[in-house]
Every structure is written in C-alpha cells, then in structure tokens.
Design a protein that fits this description.
With 247 residues, this protein is mainly alpha-helical. The chain has 13 helices and four strands. It is elongated, with a radius of gyration of 22 Å.
Length: 247
C-alpha cells in the first residue's frame, strides 16, 4: 500500500511549474491547488505543513509556494529526539559513523580529483597549525572541514543526509569530551592518520583509504574515556570532534 503523503507528493509534483526567474518548481495558488487535488483548504494546508517541516516545501510571502531541495534540519531533529528518548544511543551513533566514514573514504579514493585532494591537504595543514597553537576550537573547525570535504568528494545525497544527522547527534558528546580530545591530539598521531587517508586518495587506492580511516578511529580508542555517565566508546571522541564546529 502506498504512503498517503507519498501519493500526495506525486500529485503535487505533477501540478508544479518551473518559475521563470529561478527555475524552481512553483505550486499553483492554494485555491487552485485544492480544486485540482480535490482537497479542502484545511486538509491541503495540513499536508503542505508536513512537507514544509520536512524541508521539501517553502513558502515565500508574495511569491508563492515552491517544492524545495530538502535541508538537513529534519534529520538532525530526528536523531536529536531519538537520542533524547533513548531509541538511539551514543554507541549506535559512533558505530554508524565509523561504518559511514570507511565507506566514504573507499569511494572517495575512486573519485577524488587533484583539486579535491589539495583541499583536503589544506584542511590538514590548518589542523596541524591549530594543534601546535593549542587552539582546540580551530582544530575542530579544520577537522570538520576535512570530513565534510571528504564527503563532498563522494557527493552521495543519502550519505550526506546520514552524516549530517550524526553530526548533530554527536554534538553533546563532543562537548563532554573536549579534554580527552586535547590529550589525544598531543600524541601527534591524530593528524598523521588524516594524511594517510589523503595519501591513499592520491594513489586512488580504495583499500588503503578504508584501512587508513580504520586506523584514524583506532587511534581515538586509546584516548582516555569521557565522563563516567557517557555510554559511548572512546572512539566517539573523534566522531564528535569532527563535526563540533559546524553546528
């Protein structure tokens, strides 16, 4: 059986027309749209409000209603609420990110251009400079940029959606573990694993890239554990740090 909202979207999309100025898919006025769909104005607004909360529709005063490229807001909200209610644990999130990051590194090794590799190396240089200066926030900013750039090499919208959701879910864990991250960085090994990943991408070696990413997370497992109340394994320290500065 088809989902009622899915059917609604299919019918909605068929009624949309391209905006002459932007090319965005614009929907007819509410009255016209309701007549075409055989829906009351109240029922129509209720369905449109659901799509708006999910990020698939936006309304502009004086211009109309448009079908939109979805934002990551709703998936971040999903992970945040699921975590609050105990349906997703820190361990679940940390494990999922390790699996995703390995897959991203492997795929990126097949696709990375020289320009993208140069951008990743520049992010590492910023990480090293910030680490040497003892600027932990700048380390997190550069680390976040590194992983975001790596994900954009693959440019898979499903992976990007999952990664963005995980970033938000890991934010609180990151704040609780700042001291552990600082001690992990002091070993000098942290930045080397990033360089190993990029070297594998430059060689277009998917297996080496995946193994380098595994070592990247393996190093954080040696870091001191976070607060006793946290259920996440130490490897989530780096998972959180990588996305902390991009909230």
């Amino acid at each position: 059986m088809s989902d009622p909202l899915d059917e609604f979207v299919t019918r909605l999309d068929a009624l949309a027309s391209a905006d002459e100025e932007t090319g965005a898919r614009r929907l007819p006025p509410e009255r016209e749209l309701g007549d075409a769909l055989g829906m009351s104005r109240g029922a129509l607004r209720e369905q449109l409000a659901v799509l708006e909360r999910l990020g698939f529709v936006h309304r502009t005063q004086g211009r109309g209603t448009y079908i939109d490229t979805p934002s990551y807001g709703f998936v971040r909200t999903y992970f945040a609420i699921a975590g609050r209610l105990g349906y997703i644990t820190e361990v679940d999130v940390a494990e999922a990110r390790v699996l995703i990051e390995q897959a991203v590194a492997e795929a990126a090794a097949r696709r990375a251009t020289d320009e993208q590799i140069a951008g990743l190396r520049e992010a590492i240089e910023r990480m090293e400079a910030a680490d040497a200066a003892g600027d932990l926030r700048a380390v997190h900013v550069a680390d976040a940029d590194f992983h975001r750039r790596l994900l954009h090499v693959v440019a898979n919208p499903i992976l990007m959606l999952l990664q963005e959701g995980l970033r938000s879910a890991l934010d609180e864990d990151m704040r609780a573990r700042r001291d552990s991250v600082t001690r992990a960085h002091s070993s000098g090994e942290f930045d080397r694993t990033h360089a190993d990943i990029v070297d594998a991408l430059a060689d277009h070696d998917p297996d080496a890239a995946r193994l380098a990413m595994r070592r990247h997370f393996g190093l954080t497992e040696q870091a001191p554990a976070g607060p006793a109340t946290s259920a996440a394994p130490p490897k989530s320290v780096d998972s959180a740090g990588s996305y902390a500065a991009d909230s």
